[in-house]
Amino acid sequence: MFDVDLIRKDFPVLSRELPGGRALVYLDSGNSSQKPNQVIEVMRDHLANHYSNVGRAHHTLGAESTAAYEDARDAIAAFVGAPSRDEIVFTKNASEALNLVAYAFGNPIATDERFRVGPGDEIVISEMEHHSNIVPWQLLAQRTGATLRWFKVTDEGRLDLDDLDDLVNERTKIVSIVHQSNVLGTVNSVSPILARAREVGALMMLDASQSVPHMPVDVTELGVDFVAFTGHKMVGPSGIGVLWGRRELLDAMPPFLGGGEMIEAVWMDRSTYAPVPHKFEAGTPPIVEAIGLGAAANYLTGIGMADVRAHEKTLTGYALDALGEVPGLKVIGPRTNISRGGTISFTLKNLSGDDIHPHDVGQILDDAFGIAVRVGHHCARPLHLRFGIPATTRASLYLYNTTDEIDALARGLHHVQKVFG
């Protein structure tokens, strides 16, 4: 049975008392999640007792470190339903995973026609993307002369699929969209877009940075070609992310970075490359971080991702109701608890109807109540421009949050309104 009070005991920072005797209310997991003792201890133990470089040291510590690193790959593969551990590529973060795939397109050394991109070809994204799923494709378009196109977003914060057949067409090389929005909380339906991509021969990628930590995700069931996600949002460490890709596509892609361990053999005038996933893991990798991410996957698996999803769904419904009672508060994104996650972004007015800047909202919540939220455009400026606002306040929920913390947020927002008259 899911027991949030028991889970909270695993996270030492949640019992921290802030200056002035304030209890910490952490509602910023969409930015970066907190870490349980089970992850912290695995990383500490490896650094203290087993650390060595991986894949190259023929001694006891080298063997132990390599085994732990590859065990982490197994844990991640199992966590997302990957058919093979070799389809799990460790990256620095989701941004690097997205860039890795974007770099493969239009690369002069790519021999597979699916990765050849030039004038007349098209790349499709959406208005609700994080900058990490916009800028790499802009750069690809600039390098190759391809055209960048995008899905619009409705007033309710959903992808507008009315123009699906026009946007995704015979000129489309790849569609790359977010699985769950880091601003709106919207969980996008993959199947209609994927069906159209398959119909026209395009590849499809998902930025799953906000979905993999919060719900059961099985890459085989999704049926897409690539999935990117990151460790620090799923109770794991920063500095480690994951690219999952279908094996035959990874085999066909050129390397992203060159260096040690990604090679098979090197001469002065040429090189041959190691099999995947090592072809994409040049140099000494983030060893302890990968091991910590494996521990995070095991921790979440032990709790059960279906139970994590159910807990967050209950919290999200509670939060939408509670925030709906705050006058002058407007949720940007779905107002109902259907096909959405626990990320809630909003604007706030005072009781006279004047806007309160999100930076002021965040500072007062922190200073007066110890409530941590994120403010700004959340690395999704085009989405904010679409809604005609410069910034929002964002509360993002996770497995360790409670209804009491949501009540504290609502009280804090009423206080903010009083401060600003």
TrEMBL record:
GO molecular function terms attached to this record: cysteine desulfurase activity; pyridoxal phosphate binding
Residue ranges of every copy of the Aminotransferase class V domain listed in the record: 25-409
Catalytic activity reported: (sulfur carrier)-H + L-cysteine = (sulfur carrier)-SH + L-alanine
E.C. number(s) listed in UniProt: 2.8.1.7
Single GO BP term: cysteine metabolic process
Claim: Transferase is one of the keywords in the record: yes
First-level EC class: transferase
Pfam families attached to this UniProt entry: Aminotran_5
Keywords, alphabetical: Pyridoxal phosphate, Transferase
The keyword RNA-binding is assigned to this record: no
Cofactor names: pyridoxal 5'-phosphate
Function: Catalyzes the removal of elemental sulfur and selenium atoms from L-cysteine, L-cystine, L-selenocysteine, and L-selenocystine to produce L-alanine.
NCBIfam families in alphabetical order: sufS
Protein family per UniProt: Belongs to the class-V pyridoxal-phosphate-dependent aminotransferase family. Csd subfamily.
Name by which UniProt lists this protein: Cysteine desulfurase
Gene: sufS
